[in-house]
Amino acid sequence: MLEPDNIRKDFPVFREHPDLIYFDNAATTQKPQVVIDAITEFYTHFNANIHRGVYDIAAKATERYEAVRGKVANFIGAPSAKNIVYTSGTTASINLVAQSFLGAQLKAGDEVIISQMEHHANLIPWQMICKAKGATLKVMPIDREGAIDLGTLRVSLSKRTKLIALTHVSNTFGRINPIREVIKIAHQKNIPVLVDGAQSVAHFDIDVSDLDADFFVFSGHKLFGPTGIGILYAKEEHLNAMQPIVFGGDMIKNVSFEKSSFLSAPQCFEAGTTNIAGVIGLGAAIDYLSQYDKKEIKAYLKELREYALSRLQEIKGFSLVGSEEHSSAIISFVIDGVHPHDIATILGAHQIAIRAGNHCTQPLMDFLELPGTSRMSFSIYNLKSEVDRAIEIMQEIHDLMFGA
Amino acid sequence: MTDQLKALYQSVILHHNKEPVGYEKRPEAGMIIEAYNPICGDRFNLYLNIVEGQLEDIHFHGFGCAISKASTSILIKHLKGKSIEEVKQLVAAYFKTVNGEAEDAPEDFAAFAAAKAFPGRMKCATLSWDELNEYLKSVS
Lengths: 404, 140
Ligand SMILES: Cc1ncc(COP(=O)(O)O)c(C=O)c1O
Description:
- The structure holds 2 protein chains of 2 kinds.
- Chain A is of the alpha/beta class.
- Chain A is 40% helix and 16% strand.
- In chain A, helix 4 (56-76) crosses helix 11.
- Chain A is globular.
- By secondary structure, chain B is an alpha+beta fold.
- Helices cover 44% and strands 19% of the residues of chain B.
- In chain B, helix 2 packs across helix 3 (66-79), helix 3 (66-79) packs parallel to helix 5 (122-139) and helix 4 packs antiparallel against helix 5 (122-139).
- Chain B is globular and about 45 Å long.
- The structure holds pyridoxal-5'-phosphate.
């Protein structure tokens, strides 16, 4: 059994702010001491640039940096460390695939398919490359509970479809997409699939080989790691088809004024000095997370979500956005007559952190005909008692806004 | 509820949120200004009729939080019927008051100074005022 009360003790932010109730984990998670220590240890004991130095600490930095690649591969079930490209985050990973993988092959009349619930990061890179190449961005519709229709998907695929990009879990309302089925359907027509794992990687057991995902992307900061580090997993055949798009040091084999040749993947996609401390912090975060059983994490967060949902029903005017089921640790909601930002401000004044707005999914909000929602998102250090406290405050909101 | 919250959601603001002044669509208005905050999705249309240097009529409609809605309602309440010169003076006085700089301004402006204590909420207090201000600058 997960012990959230003990897990909390690993996170110094809760020691510094004993009253903080942090329900904004979909935006970013808090950092355990071991991650902070790993970063400090790097800067204190073996700070050096990687891949070039012949002295001790440079060798150690390089070794640690490269070791994390294997750790990441292992963590998501990738066949090899060679499938793992370090980026600055989910956004950078998606842009890299859009420009490097699609940029080389997309032609006028081709199609890229996304869903209606995508984060702007999994929408605009495709929109821009489609525009540049005269291709079409097609949008898989969803219903009001967030379900995509696999039948519709099946018939919308054609020879012109060059990629499907889909989020594993919606950051807006937590809906879990049937990515295994989507990948199966796509592969029947040899269409590659990119899975945006930003919201799933901290909670689900991910096995990219078993899923047969072509690309899987995520950010370190949503799984207890530092900001500014992310991962692009790609199948080897796809990495080989991708051209570097950022050029400079650390990615070259041979350089002359006439021409240059590049290292093979993944190094050719990591030009310049990368976020070494970030990589090392990510390694520590994966170690930290790996001590817990993902099944227990999933079960606990499901229980917490169900508990919070049942308590939220007590709030006058509450309605859930999305689906009661098929959802991960996110609850998006509206309260009749009270703007999401007023809810977030009132909770915030009581040290309860939630998020309000469109959650970087403006087209989804347009579809739902909502200007925004309030969003609570949970992690392994959250407690039922914290939910109770939030409910207590929310019960007062009506009185504050409309008079008792 | 904390004191800061009570200061922000005081009766002036709650009252204008519940019963906004001039809250009506006027698509036939001479000038329609959109006040939109992409960060939170708040969006109001301001419907203006300016006749011979007078703001003869002004209404608004749209969606926003209690702060942005009330601040727009206060805008309508104070600016309707004023000359453009007076409008400009009132807009300047509003910004000063909201920034906490004491000013000889209408009493209900002061309620919005409380937004300063809430990071991220200042824009709610100035959204419609900012857009109106931009428009006034563009026409003079
Ligand atoms: C589903 C999803 N995709 C992409 C992103 C973008 O991640 P990042 O800002 O770390 O690049 C996020 C984070 O907000 C997300 O939730």
